[in-house]
Specification:
Distance between the termini: 24 Å
Shape: globular
CATH topology of the domain at 55-178: AhpD-like
Number of strands: 0
Order of helices and strands: HHHHHHHHH
Largest sheet: none
């Protein structure tokens, strides 16, 4: 596997240094994902912006977690599943939701299950979902705005999941307790 540098302030390209400062201020550390992304300042900046924008959507913390973790599990991201498990704990997402997402078992409400189903339909079909998928999502209580906000979440997760696959990003110490492995096929 090609090795990618885990950058810090002393090794990062100049254009990434302020971005790494942002990461350190937000997380109290430079997450490994951000350290890898620093190699390409535009990628790190875009990821940080998409993260900010996604957290400002009309979805609450639990719904954001459903979207993020549905994508992370589908993409089998060894880094993002543990990281978002930690984020879910920090944002007080119910444990039953987190466990259901990690274990690919039913979510506690039909509305959250509809959100996971729609998110996975977007990912698996590369955005080419049937109108019946959209209608089921809307009938579950979501809006056309939410349809497009799911696309925003998918965009953010493609950047992180693919980067972690390419780099084999090591799981940061605070997230190691939430290590995750995909279910057997």
């Amino acid at each position: 596997m090609t090795e990618f540098t885990l950058h810090d302030q002393s090794t990062a390209p100049e254009a990434s240094r302020a971005l790494l400062d942002n990461s350190e201020q937000a997380f109290g550390m430079i997450p490994g994902l951000h350290a890898v992304m620093a190699e390409a300042p535009g990628l790190l900046e875009a990821y940080q912006q998409l993260h900010r924008l996604f957290t400002e959507t009309s979805f609450d913390a639990t719904e954001q977690t459903v979207i993020w973790q549905s994508i992370n599990v589908e993409h089998q991201c060894h880094y993002c599943v543990p990281a978002h498990t930690a984020i879910a704990k920090m944002t007080e997402v119910p444990e039953e939701v987190t466990a259901a997402l990690r274990n690919e078992t039913p979510l506690p409400t039909p509305k959250l299950e509809a959100l996971r189903d729609f998110t996975l339909a977007i990912v698996r079909n590369r955005g080419r979902v049937d109108d019946s998928d959209v209608q089921r999502f809307l009938e579950a209580g979501y809006t056309k705005r939410n349809v497009l906000e799911v696309v925003l979440g998918v965009s953010q997760k493609v950047m992180s999941n693919y980067t972690n696959h390419l780099a084999g990003t090591p799981i940061d110490a605070p997230f190691q307790q939430f290590e995750w492995h995909p279910r057997e096929a």
